[in-house]
Amino acid sequence: MNAIVKNQMTSIIATVANDTPPFKSKILQKKYELTNEMKTVKDLLSDRVRTIYRIRALRDFGNVKANDLGGFIEHEGNLSHEGNCWVGGNAWIYNDAYISDNAQVCGQC
């Protein structure tokens, strides 16, 4: 292995090992949590019964303040922790529905 290739490989390995750009990991701060308040709802497409949970904001973002209660989601895969998206009021999001970016879903907001 020639010296140039060896130096490039050492540099790449050091970059990855030190977690520096462009490999720096993005630490995602959660913006909501699932509460203990839950409902069971019937999925109209599959007739399956699903459990949905009310969400609570953990931090301020967009028009939402920390500790605000939101609507109901089935699991964290329904609502992104990034952007200003939110499920508010008594809205229900379940199954494979995914809310992201700046989308606002409200039921009686």
From TrEMBL:
Superkingdom to which the source organism belongs: Bacteria
Protein name according to UniProt: Phage related protein
